[in-house]
Amino acid sequence: MTATSPTLKSNLSIVLASARMRLATISRYPGQLLMDIFIPIVFAAMPILLGRATAGPDAGENFAQNTGTSNYVAYMLIGSAAFTIVTYAFWHIAYWLRWEQETGTLEALYLSPTHRVWVAGGTALYSCLRSLFSASAAFLIGSKILGVNPFEGGVGLAFLFILSGLIPIYGLALLFGALVIKVKEANALINLMQWGVSFLMGIFFPIAMFPPLLRAIALLFPPTWMTNGVRSALLGLTYFFQEWYLDLAVLWAFALIAPLLGYWVFTRAETSIRRNEGVGQF
Amino acid sequence: MTGTVRVENLSKTYQVRQRKGLFKSFRSTVEALKGVTLEVRPGEIFGLLGPNGAGKTTLIKILTTLLLPSSGEAWVNGFHVQRQENQVRASVGCMLMGERGLYWKLTGRENLEYFGALYHLSPQDRRQRALEILERIQLGEIADRTVETYSSGQKMKLAFGKALINDAPLLVLDEPTNTLDVPSASELRAVVRDLHAQGKTIIYTTHIMSEAETLCDRVAIIDHGQLLALGSIEELKDSLRRDQVTRIEGVIPSRAVAAVKRLPTVQQATRTSADSGDLLTIVTSDGHEFLPQIIEALTQTGATIKKIAPEEVTLEDVFIAKTGRTLAEDTRER
């Protein structure tokens, strides 16, 4: 038998092979990659143009009263780019599982001596690369089109917030994936989730505008902290805990909890499915 | 423990949702396996025969860790299917879903290399192994085309090649010649024989009786979740005496079949289509002494007999005697 026992190196090799496989697949749909860049710009352009239409020349001043910045264009572009990262995480993990379930390759994965979490890691790596590329390109191109400077503020710190936010977001995406393989449905769940996520993480408005209960719920959600951290770093706004490192520490706490929670729920869903009809039924 | 595969009193029940119309549904329990016990010996080709819904896929899925049994135990290559899942997976090469288990947007080579990674092969080993397999299954020329451009037979060959990626001592092949044309099926069977000659143990399911008869060392017949027969082809054939099987060709209506079935020594009577009309295969417990009564029952119920032939027992006859129907018969509505 040439198959060897799993080692950390061979498991990391699976992560890379899985990411490479998905990149190879998407490279066969070049139009999709182009669309990835323009969708966040169009998404942000709608409220920006609505703001200009309704508030006229005073839009910036009105916006500053609630958010602390008059640069509502950058504010919404950042929100839209952050939303791209979050929604891609959910889309890619959920769609990966659903697609493999429908095409029959999910059973093939379960036949191999590889824990699905490593394949999920590869999917997450692919998703990160694709979403970071799309979000960055959309932010840069969108800033150029809408006439704002994309490089003001702490770009490095903003990037640190994004990197710290990715881990808990993919942990939650794995949890969401458990739901997808259990109920055997992705599209309706993702559509529903997208509206909830975009609302809770405050992509176009500060969550300070929420009533207290909703604000508390939003603060339990890691993307809210990531988006606020990126915005605060780039636009000089106040952090939830006033200091950047305290907000970052909250994201790191989420980074410890969310993947473990996602892993636990996912493995329980797997066991439940294998106890009943198996992963092959879709 | 001597068997490559050992199954002890394995049972599997699960819940299915039955649909009625658009919105109504109710849950029911399916007993897919009922206390199956068997052993697959090292180095043999073990045929698993049964109509659709008989329980053979459930058994294979438990042995390959895709499903958890409700009760009973099983070992594969000495590893327990529930307690040592990863060792079981590493020691089995599977072809279960045919062409559905492949990534159609990847090339044949990319598919094999990716599955090699999942079996923890180093990048160099997986490239080498993919090359060897592509050569063996004669897909080398189209290895760098995406699978979506392959014919159905080529996809089946690649799915078979995928089962070889980890060079496992046990191969589980679920209907591997499905959708293959005659020459390709013959080539694939030659590869299976070659792998068998190298000492691999092979579990082989098929709907083609002649394939099972020529390829398998021993077969198990499963129906309604139960093991009905197990042994070598010759042992199973010997279990029916030569003169116990009679074939009658002609025009045989359903009531005639029912009349024959009511005769006390008739064990099974199964009607299939033949070139000249119907073919009735009758298994009796007392040889041909009862033949006049069978003929009488048929003629009195409107049957027209064209030919009566006592024939040598085939594996198909064994299957009919054990299950009451032919393997080709669709039993999904059971």
Describe the protein's architecture and organization.
The complex is a heterodimer of chains A (282) and B (334). Chain A is 78% helix and 0% strand. Chain A has 282 residues and is an all-alpha fold. Chain A has one domain. The longest helix of chain A is centred in the first third of the chain and has 32 residues, at 72-103. The radius of gyration of chain A is 20 Å and the shape is elongated. Chain B is α/β, with parallel strands linked by helices and 334 residues long. In chain B, helix 3 packs across helix 4 (123-136) and helix 9 packs antiparallel against helix 10 (291-300).
Q: How many individual domains of chain A?
A: 1
Which class best fits the helix and strand makeup of chain B? alpha/beta
Number of helical elements of chain A: 11
Q: Determine Rg of chain A (CA atoms, Å).
A: 20 Å
Helix content of chain A: over 70%
Mean of residue pLDDT of chain B?
A: 88
**Quantity of strands of chain B, as a count:** 14
Cα-to-Cα separation, first versus last residue of chain A: 33 Å
- Following the backbone from N to C, one meets helices and strands of chain B in this order, namely EEEHEEHEHHHEHEHEEHEHEEHEH
Q: Which blocks of ≥5 consecutive residues of chain B have pLDDT under 50?
A: 330-334
What does the oligomeric state look like here?
heterodimer
- End-to-end Cα distance of chain B, whole Å, is 37 Å
Radius of gyration of chain B: 23 Å
Give me the count of strands of chain A. Answer: 0
User: Mind summarizing the main beta sheet of chain A?
Assistant: none
